[in-house]
Structures are given as C-alpha cells and as structure tokens.
Amino acid sequence: GMTPSEYQQKRKKLGLTQTELARLLGIARETVSRRENGHDELSKEAVLAIQALANKKTCRVSRINEKKLVH
C-alpha cells in the first residue's frame, strides 16, 4: 500500500502538478487531490499507475491509463 503523503511525494518527485498527473493517468485532478488528502482510498490500480510512471524515469512520460491496468 501507499499512504496519501507518499502518493503526493511520488508525484512531486516526478515533477508533476496534480493536473499533469491527472492528465497522464486519465483521471480528474480532483481525484488526485482527494487521494493526496486522504479522502479517496488509494486503490491497487492507483498505486501501480503512479509507480509505473516513476519507473519510466524518462524525460517524456508516456500516458498510462490507470483504468486499463489489470487487477
């Protein structure tokens, strides 16, 4: 699992705003915000998606659709 603050730290480490992360993951910015302040549960998909982005470590991060990740 991942805590809301860890989720936020990972986003910041990627150098992304909430809006940019949301766009890359195909989700709403509000969803990112709710995850970071603990109002939304961090699903397995949510954690896998941000970890996949972090693992790419490329200058140009390709789009990952969180909703298409398998359980």
Characterise this structure.
The chain has 71 residues and is an all-alpha fold. It has four helices and no strands. The chain has helices at residues 4-13, 18-25, 29-36, 44-56. The longest helix has 13 residues, at 44-56. The radius of gyration is 11 Å and the shape is globular. The chain starts with a helix and ends in a 15-residue tail after the last helix. The model has no long low-confidence stretch (mean pLDDT 86).
Question: Which terms would index this structure?
Answer:
71 residues, mainly alpha, 55% helix, 0% strand
Summarize the structure.
With 71 residues, the chain is an all-alpha fold. Helix content is 55%, strand content 0%.
The run of helices and strands is HHHH
* Span of the ends, CA to CA: 14 Å
Average pLDDT number: 86
Radius of gyration: 11 Å
Helix/strand class: mainly alpha
Gross morphology is globular
Q: Largest sheet, described in full? A: none
Report low-confidence residues grouped into runs of 5 or more. Answer: none
Contiguous helical run count: 4
Number of strands: 0
Which percent range describes the beta-strand content? under 5%
SSE blueprint:
Blueprint: H1 4-13, H2 18-25, H3 29-36, H4 44-56
Helix pairs in contact: 1-4, 2-3
